[in-house]
Amino acid sequence: MKAPANPATADPPSVTLEESLAVVARKMSETRIDAIPVVGANHGLVGVATEKEIREFPEERRGEVSVSAVIKSQFTHCKPNDDLYAALRSMILANAGSIPDCLGRESMILVGVITRSDIGAPHHKNVSRHSRRSNSKIINPSSAADKY
Fold this sequence. Notes:
- By secondary structure, the chain is α+β, with helices and mostly antiparallel strands.
- The protein has a single domain, classed as CBS-domain, CATH 3.10.580.10.
- 34% of the residues lie in helices and 16% in strands.
- The chain is built from 5 helices and 4 strands, in the order H-E-E-H-H-E-E-H-H.
- The strands form 2 sheets. Strands 1-2 form a two-stranded antiparallel sheet.
- The longest helix is centred in the C-terminal third of the chain and has 18 residues.
- The radius of gyration is 20 Å and the shape is globular.
- The termini are far apart.
- 25% of the residues are buried.
């Protein structure tokens, strides 16, 4: 199943290495994603800051600590033309709820963030459309067994 036009979050949230963990936590809360892309020059992806690493710092200290203290430079990402199942598989293997969507192999330009719900929405729509077209009745297995 190929991705619809672009399920990734448009105008993706991101932070720079210099921003505080308090800013990252606020953006995570506002966007409901568990890993914020960290960008450098020209919006190039340099890593991700995850909710898990941020929670290691007490809330009152997060304003003092920069993203550079928690950045993960090895991370899972996808490309705009990857199919949805490949993106989902990457998320499952990385135990992530979201992954960055990047252009280019070397420059890694951030173009979006794709979440599990971005993938689930087209799948749910497809299942709903299929069930509306079907005229067959769903039989409760226990009631069918009672008849025989």
